[in-house]
Each structure stands twice: as structure tokens, then as C-alpha cells.
Specification:
Elements lengths: L4 H16 L34 E9 L11 E9 L7 E11 L6 H7 L1 E3 L2 E5 L3 H16 L13 E5 L14 H10 L17 E2 L2 E2 L1 E11 L2 E12 L13 H4 L16 E8 L5 H17 L9 E8 L4 E3 L4 E3 L9 H21 L3 E2 L5 E2 L4 H10 L6
Parallel strand pairs: 5-6, 11-12
Antiparallel strand pairs: 1-2, 2-5, 3-4, 3-12, 7-8, 9-10, 10-11, 13-14, 15-16
Helix pairs in contact: 3-4, 6-7
Length: 391
């Protein structure tokens, strides 16, 4: 009996993946490429940039090696910017949810009271959140100011953080205004980087190397198609907790533990941004932001006491102002139709987190501290062991 050509293609694909994933991880490999069986339909790039108009920019700073010298390095850090309305100071409905508040996200009081955010969102390390916030504000002011005294183009920028002090000279304050502006000016749609990039450069998760990750989902409500995208800066969790597609991967990989020569023990955090073109009220976006926690939990975390787990959900579908009547007109999805939005949020959050880990590479930082990347070949074998591989 002759084997079908498509079967042979399938076998060749498995061979290529197996060989490609030996040794050093490749940042272009994503979790789906390794056979992780995620639910749901991703967008073209499986990224937050699948949501029309959303752009992402990075600045990555990697300098020096060896013993920590405050202010000199080694440096393993960066900044990520997400522009929900492109390069503008445009407003968008938004809502926040803090699963555990040992962290920072600026701009929350205004969002809580008014349900609106403005302009770019920044994500960086803990000690640079103020710098990033101010730099975003100044960039908006210089780009979009009309010269009016109470011009809101500076706004109340959203900037969030996770702690990269395991690998980075975090007290050296190595991120400056120009770094943020470079990230803003370079922001673009389409395919974006993951792993050791931008604000995720020095981050770790589940005692593997972590960082930046993204994913998206396409869904329908009645006859209308919508897109929802997720971006994470992942820096949380302990090894035994790590779960991928229901499989206890962390318990299966008990070697490749971090090499910690000298640095303070501290919990990590996760910042998650959800963007969608589905028209939603701020109160509905609050419900979406809460569902992010379910996607995080699928990967094994129970949200540690010292973890800053802070989430923001936004819609790029903004209300229209009727100048004749002096009213804003909102078109929204009714309550009884929200389940597809919730489902997409949970699925894309889970995948974005695993994508961050799969894309990350080994990194050595301050004092020779080292975190290993998740080994692709072993992940493939473990998924097969539990009959969870797509291959």
C-alpha cells in the first residue's frame, strides 16, 4: 500500500521540527509549532497586532557581563509600547483588573472612574515605570499638542512593570526617555517579536527564561467577525506549577534550574493587555479583564503573594460624538452575547504566556545568574507522553 503524499509531508515536518529544536531555542519558533494543542482560531499573525490599528514597539538593552556594579551593569532590560490607536493620542474604552496588587500600572484611577484611556501603553521594569510614563506623555504632547493650556494630549499615560532584578542591574536606571521614544517611533503592526525583547528582556517565569508573548483569536457574534489580541510581559510562577495544555511540564523537567550566585529573592509578576475591535462598554471590558486571570491560571499559577498580576482590557471601537445633540453614541455587544469574547480572552492569554516561554532563549545576567530556556525537544516528548501533542 502506497503512502499518501500528505502523510510524507507530515513526517518530514516532524523531522524538521525535531532537529530545529535541538540545542539552542529559536526565537521564531512558537508553541503551536511544537504541537501544543491550543483551542480557538488565531488571526493572521497570532498577535495583538491582528486587531486593526494596533501597533507594538520595542527597545531592548543588553550590555555587559559578570559582577553587578550599580549603574554600570550588566544590563538586561528594555521597554515595550503598545499603541491601540496607532501613533496617536486617541481615546479608547478600557478597564483594569488587579488579581494581585504587588505591582504598578499607572493611570488606573482615571480609567476606573471614566472608562477611557488615551494614547500608548508602556511596559518595562519596576524601577523605570515612572520614566516610561513621563516619556510617553512628553512624546504625545510634542506630537499632538494643540497648544491649549489644558490640552489632554499629555493625558494620564498607562505604564506597567515587572521586576527584572534577577538578571538586570535594575537599580542602575538604564532606561531613558530616548529609549522609550525609539520604541514608540519604531512601533508597527504585523508580526512582532517575542521572548527576550523589549520590557521582557530580563524577565523569567516558572524558573525558566520568560519575557514578552502574544496571541490572538478570531470569533463571530451572530454574523459579525471580531478579533481579540493579547500581549503579556511574563515574569511569574515556580517550576512545579508550570502546566502546558493540561500537562505538568514543570514537574517533568526538574533539571535546568536557575543558577543563582547572588541576588535577592523576590516574586515575579505578569502584566497582560487585551485589545479587541469588538464594541464593548467599560463595564464589559472589566469583565474581560477579569477573565484574563483564568488564562493565567491555565498555565499553573495561583498568583503568589508577591506577584503583581495586573490586567487591562480595551476596545478600539470608540463611541461617536454627535455634536448637534451633544451626545456620545455607543454601539455595544449585548450582555447575552459576551461569551465568545470571554472564551477568546482565556484562550489567547494562555497561548501568549506559553509563546513567551517558547520564544525565550538562555540568558546570563548579573553576577553570572543564569536562566535556561524551555527545551523544545523535551516539551514535544512530554506532550506526546501525555497524548496531548497535535502531532
Amino acid at each position: 500500500m502506497k503512502r499518501r503524499p500528505d502523510y510524507l509531508i507530515f513526517v518530514i515536518a516532524l523531522f524538521l521540527i525535531a532537529n530545529l529544536t535541538k540545542g539552542q531555542n529559536n526565537e521564531n519558533i512558537r508553541a503551536r509549532d511544537l504541537g501544543v494543542p491550543f483551542e480557538g482560531l488565531p488571526g493572521k499573525y497570532n498577535a495583538i497586532t491582528d486587531v486593526p490599528g494596533v501597533e507594538v514597539g520595542y527597545k531592548t538593552i543588553i550590555k555587559g557581563a559578570g559582577k553587578l556594579e550599580y549603574g554600570k551593569g550588566p544590563v538586561r532590560t528594555g521597554v515595550t509600547v503598545i499603541l491601540p490607536k496607532g501613533k496617536s493620542s486617541g481615546a479608547y474604552p478600557a478597564a483594569c483588573f488587579s488579581l494581585n496588587g504587588d505591582g504598578e500600572m499607572t493611570g488606573i484611577p482615571s480609567i476606573e472612574d471614566y472608562g477611557i484611556a488615551y494614547g500608548p501603553i508602556g511596559i518595562t521594569n519596576t524601577n523605570s515605570v515612572g520614566t516610561v510614563r513621563d516619556a510617553i506623555g512628553e512624546w504625545c504632547f510634542k506630537r499632538f499638542s494643540t497648544g491649549e493650556l489644558y490640552d489632554f494630549s499629555f493625558g494620564l499615560p498607562v505604564a506597567a512593570e515587572t521586576w527584572d532584578g534577577r538578571l538586570n542591574d535594575i537599580n542602575g536606571f538604564h532606561i531613558g526617555k530616548d529609549d522609550v521614544w525609539q520604541a514608540l517611533e519604531s512601533a508597527a503592526g504585523g508580526k512582532i517579536g517575542e521572548g527576550n525583547i523589549g520590557g521582557g528582556t530580563g524577565m523569567v517565569m516558572y524558573e525558566f527564561k520568560g519575557g514578552s508573548g502574544t496571541a490572538s483569536r478570531i470569533f463571530k457574534i451572530d454574523s459579525v467577525t471580531y478579533t481579540l489580541g493579547v500581549f503579556v510581559q511574563a515574569n511569574f510562577g515556580m517550576r512545579n506549577e508550570l502546566t502546558i495544555s493540561g500537562v505538568p511540564v514543570g514537574k517533568e523537567i526538574q533539571d535546568l534550574k536557575p543558577i543563582i550566585n547572588q541576588n535577592p529573592a523576590k516574586d515575579g509578576s505578569i502584566i497582560v493587555i487585551v485589545a479587541t475591535d469588538a464594541p464593548l462598554l467599560p463595564g464589559q471590558l472589566k469583565l474581560v479583564a477579569k477573565r484574563i486571570a483564568l488564562g493565567v491560571a491555565r498555565t499553573g499559577s495561583y498568583s503568589h503573594d508577591g506577584s503583581g498580576d495586573i490586567f487591562l482590557a480595551l476596545s478600539t471601537s470608540t463611541p461617536l460624538y454627535d455634536s448637534k445633540k451633544g451626545l456620545e453614541n455607543w454601539s455595544v455587544i449585548p450582555k447575552v452575547k459576551l461569551n465568545p469574547v470571554f472564551e477568546a480572552t482565556v484562550e489567547a492569554t494562555e497561548e501568549a504566556i506559553i509563546n513567551a516561554m517558547v520564544a525565550a532563549r538562555d540568558m546570563e545576567g548579573i553576577n553570572g545568574n543564569k536562566y535556561y530556556s524551555l527545551p523544545h525537544d523535551r516539551l514535544i516528548d512530554i506532550l506526546k507522553k501525555y497524548n496531548r501533542s497535535k502531532f
